[in-house]
């Protein structure tokens, strides 16, 4: 497979341009489905992050940039005298770096590793960083970098390939977005696609796109052209194909693999100028579901300077092998335990005896006030997700269900209502297990035990994000004796209390490891319901009568 082909080393860092940047700006974005129109965003206020500073000079002490003196001119209408402000980077040497890395359990390996940053201001002192990008960070409340950002941003700015594994909710998105935006600004070419971000799901692609839009406001490239970010939606794909939109219009595109490949095959997009490619949820993109598509994408990006970044909360060793083989002199960044669960999540296991026991457990949680919204419940299949939805809806709970059979419009609407607090409990399949950043989810319930430790880490990672506390409860029955073992190990590794009697239970034999590796631990489960068959029929009849009455009322209106 071509994926194992080693491509040439990534792009070199260039200085930011000092082109005059007008006060007003607009960014045209082609958003997915419900946002198909190009949007104009006008921002009038600019945060004066650098007041009083006229010129900042810093000598980059690091090996790679030690011979460069960097100068950045900052507007200050009142002052006419140029001042030199000596801003020392907070991390000035290997000892500082060692102490910082120890504080966040950072394990960084590779050749010639650059120093981390300790604050976003270090980006100014060490790199010719775009002032407006920094302002956008501050304006959006990002004042201090998270550990993965401390490491990932300078690495990428030095043009290194990066393989990064950091806990769920720890800020990986900005760790790859910030340098990608900066390097797009640095690229001298005025037109053409320079950056690609690949995500396994549309929901996650939408979310990354929204972050990229926030951070790219007021940023102009050469000839006062605003930096253009787009999500490759169905409609944008069609417009590119019919040449209604130029394929040179966008600087950065966020896409799912298949949609991007379609656009390349239709000659709607040319990836030959792409200089940076980011694989978010890299282990998913390099597993058997996506690996061929990912390979096709890499083959279409044939600029020898292509820089590659891979990010995930879980990077199993087989994926790491592939990653190492396609990257050039990568730096490997591990924050905390590799593949460990986020330490802010209180993890629990609940034995439910059998399938009926799971429903009873949920109802008990409701009665005892432990069912505190917002809640996400994960199930292993669409059929089961739908069945649980009907059960809980019948119980009068504020629930909805999201899975691959729902239309994109329905999916977007459900996500919006969950984000806004209108919807309290979201039932879903693994389609929402990765990357989605719902703020303040209180509780994640694994109604069905996930089949891999990785899936478990991502699912429960929908709570406990951005240093908040969260809770995850995993239901299991006798049938889950094997699947529960890797989960017990994750729990123990992340410092959660595991009853002593589970120690023996968690040991995996060689054969069991093989079964799990092949994904053969899935079990046959009884359908979800605590209701007798005769009652179920009555209930179904009642439900269809209610729906018919609703339809009639709607028609009368
Ligand atoms: N420097 C920062 N300061 C404050 N908040 C931040 C910072 N960086 C990221 N965040 C916030 O932290 C939350 C989690 O970030 P993000 O979605 O990037 O996590 P992640 O590591 O990609 O998680 P996952 O593995 O689940 O994809 C987001 O709400 C994001 O806005």
Descriptive account of the structure:
It is a single chain. By secondary structure, the chain is of the alpha/beta class. The protein has four domains: 3-81, no CATH class; 101-335, P-loop containing nucleotide triphosphate hydrolases (Rossmann fold, 3-Layer(aba) Sandwich), CATH 3.40.50.300; 345-517, Rossmann fold, CATH 3.40.50; 532-557. It contains 19 helices and 17 strands. The strands form three sheets. The chain has an eight-stranded mixed sheet, with helices on both faces. Strands 12-17-16-13-15-14 form a six-stranded parallel sheet, sandwiched between helices. Strands 2-1-3 form a three-stranded mixed sheet. Strand 16, helix 15 and strand 17 (470-477) form a beta-alpha-beta unit. The longest helix is centred in the C-terminal third of the chain and has 24 residues, at 533-556. It is globular, with a radius of gyration of 25 Å. The N and C termini lie far apart (60 Å). Mean pLDDT is 82; it is low at 1-86. The chain binds adenosine-5'-triphosphate (ATP). Adenosine-5'-triphosphate binds next to helix 5.
